[in-house]
Amino acid sequence: MPSGFARVAAASLRVHLGDVEANEREILAAMERMQARGAALLVLPEMCLTGYTLGDLFSQELVQRRALDALGRLAARSGAMAVVVGLPVNQRGRLFNCAAILQGGRVRGLVPKTYLPNGNEFYETRWFVPSSQAEPFWELNGERVPMGANLLFDTGDFAFAVEICEDLWTPTPPSSRYAVEGAEIIVNPSASNALAGKHAYRRSLLAQQSGRLLAAYAYACAGFGESTSDLVFCGYTGVFENGRALSEGERFLLEGGEAVADVDVGRLRYHRQRNGSFHQMPREGMRTVALDAPPQAALPLLRPLDPLPFVPSGPDAGERLDEVWRIQDTGLVSRLSAIGCRSLVVGVSGGLDSTLSLLVAVRAFDRLGLARSGIHALTMPGLGTGARTHRNAARLMEALGVSAREVPIGPAVRQHFEDIGQDENVHDVTYENAQARERTQILMDYANKVGGIVLGTGDMSELALGFCTYNGDHMSMYNPNGSVPKTLVKRLVARLSEAFGPEVEAICRDIIDTPISPELLPADKGEMTQRTEDILGDYALNDFFLYHLLDSGASAQKLETLAGQAFEGMYEPALIARQLRRFLKRFFTQQFKRNCAPDGPKVGSISLSPRGDLRMPSDMDGRMWLD
């Protein structure tokens, strides 16, 4: 496993109410299972050594002594994995609802519950006192064990802290302070009863708290075997990271469920560094308990890895796609309104990017109540234009009812070749870029002619790789696609075209099925001879690298590992390595194009705008990443 990951586990157990030795056996079995799976941290439910619903029997000396004896035996069996176990602890006549942290054969710390519920079905103040009453150390077998709600446990690879059940549900959860003090992982041993509708609220609470704290959150709830006199406990387990569930265990199991996931600690640290408000809370100070180095789990990573991280999936995918194009067309509506513009010019090639820009433009004009004839769509066939894209461009412009114009660029480009002494038979970068710049000149001048602006079409993937002609298709007055990656463009075109009727939808389906190409090299009998992915590699891989590079600051090693797992069976490891090197080389040498990119709306969490999301020097040396 690459550095920066921690395998975290949450397990529910079958409860043997009042039978400490039987609960000890359940805990030990769970410890052994998770040790075998390479977990670095395991959280078990609240009061799992005795059972949470023991009531007045918590005050019995027999219960407390048996729990402490069992804790000592469990500690002796603990290894490099840190284990969080719940039990009652008596300190000078004050009884605490505690979580004990075990590692390396010892009890390393005790965290008492901070907020005690005392209403409806819960009566904890009848038996326990809050953490504020705890003394800083607890004597156990001649050893001073740190005790309190201000403990931060640091393994060297990650730091974690503990809050207990009700602590999470309060207006100011202790975990908020723990995260600011450096805890990347919060664990919560809980005994939260099941109620109709409560589970959805609890999941939302866990997701929100992990997102708010830019942290991982591991939760383990009491389950089968607790008293059902008035309550039922479902045994829910979950591991969340920065707002999303990585792993969740099944509820209502007789033997208890479990959730295990690999937390990307490096990603959490990266996000915290980049979040300007995260470190503005006042620091109150924590006591750090140094733990042993955690075990290193083997690959594969236990976490969901989407090969298309930019593309919405799941039941709300359609809604999220709609939100993206609505951001695009609202941005364009705002720009047109701000400058009092009633016409725009867009180059339509019959490819994906220009199709999306044209659809967005039509939506914006419709919203503004402007005639679609104010959209001047120009198709400019050149030396490499294929028959299929040429036909689709013409059909799309006609079907949408915009002002269509065809301006062949061949004669002008050949004249330019003659002017600069370029051999037309030499199909080099000059040959290609001259066509792109000729098209841009036409668009700019035509915009002046009709009193409009040029709408850009280039997408974020092309900008990341520098696959655009400087002062050519790279330039416009406004670009709605500037933060839309290529893998998302396809889905957006498919989704947005549905709103324009079956004719437009059919044309867009054929555009989606057409291979991606700049069409700058001569066609062969009307068929394109140039395919972008033959030059750059598959966009799916490039977008995957882009997402994880900017989302978590991933190293080349981490990018290769993640891609190898996400695309297993689709791409050979050698191909991934080659394409990664090509991606990194292009990314770090093309910032000069991004530093003067036109305005455009940010639609997702990743953007390359030099005015906001990505500020780096144009003369960047990327050798460290390549090495």
Protein model, in words:
- The chain is of the alpha/beta class.
- The protein has 19 helices and 21 strands.
- The protein has helices spanning 20-36, 61-77, 174-180, 198-212, 265-274, 317-339, 352-368, 387-400, 410-420, 429-450, 460-465, 486-497, 502-513, 532-536, 539-552, 556-566, 573-589, 591-594, 623-626, and strands at residues 5-11, 41-43, 82-91, 94-103, 106-112, 118-119, 122-123, 137-140, 143-146, 151-154, 159-162, 185-190, 216-221, 237-241, 244-248, 258-264, 287-290, 344-347, 375-379, 403-406, 453-454.
- Strands 15-14-13-12-11-10-17 form a 7-stranded mixed sheet, covered by helices on one side. A 6-stranded mixed sheet has the order 5-4-3-2-1-16. The chain has a 4-stranded parallel sheet with strand order 20-19-18-21, with helices on both faces.
- α8 (387-400) runs antiparallel to α13 and α9 crosses α10 (429-450).
- The longest helix is centred in the middle third of the chain and has 23 residues, at 317-339.
- The two termini are 19 Å apart.
- The model has no long low-confidence stretch (mean pLDDT 94).
